[in-house]
Amino acid sequence: MFYRPENGHGLPHNPFNALITPRPIAWVSTQDQDGNANLAPYSFFNGTAYVPPQVMFASTGTKEDQTNAKDTLANIRATGVFCINIVEQAMTDAMNISTEGYAREVDEFERAGLTAAQCETITCPRLADAPASMECQVSDILQMKGANNYVIHGEVTGIHMRDNCIVEGIFDVTTFRPLARLGYRDYSVVDNTFTLARPDD
């Protein structure tokens, strides 16, 4: 099968997201200028550089009570900071609760029964019980083609790792089974790994 996106795919559901899988989920926490906390998941997310450590995630769409943005992006524009929290399988239901388009003054930490903690290097909350959290200072916000499509780049200024996720000096993802986004409404978890040496090692 071949199709041009501008002509449509003819399938019951758009297959695009299913082609880019599995995708890690950035559970992004922010705070507006009035101190209202926000927590929302984004699955167009990845690391972009080692030194200094940098990350990116993409925000698409908007909300009725925001201008050309979702709450996360509006808060980032206002404050210049955000925190990416890693999602473990045990937090699947709470993560799903935070996907709802609540009014901007609603605190998703409270709505999902989660505990917020203050970050160390930025003025923003983080998820206290996350396997890992990355405190980020915005370095760039790029507008892409289409309505309300943005890529947010940030430099990681502080990293929290839960102690029980560190095994023999290595951050072991199998200790918490990170949640990954597939296509449609499907998800997966990472529950096994293997090591592959490069030919020039």
TrEMBL record:
<dbReference type="InterPro" id="IPR002563">
    <property type="entry name" value="Flavin_Rdtase-like_dom"/>
</dbReference>
<dbReference type="GO" id="GO:0016646">
    <property type="term" value="F:oxidoreductase activity, acting on the CH-NH group of donors, NAD or NADP as acceptor"/>
</dbReference>
<feature type="domain" description="Flavin reductase like">
    <location>
        <begin position="18"/>
        <end position="173"/>
    </location>
</feature>
<protein>
    <submittedName>
        <fullName>NADH-FMN oxidoreductase RutF, flavin reductase (DIM6/NTAB) family</fullName>
    </submittedName>
</protein>
<dbReference type="InterPro" id="IPR012349">
    <property type="entry name" value="Split_barrel_FMN-bd"/>
</dbReference>
<dbReference type="Pfam" id="PF01613">
    <property type="entry name" value="Flavin_Reduct"/>
</dbReference>
<dbReference type="GO" id="GO:0010181">
    <property type="term" value="F:FMN binding"/>
</dbReference>
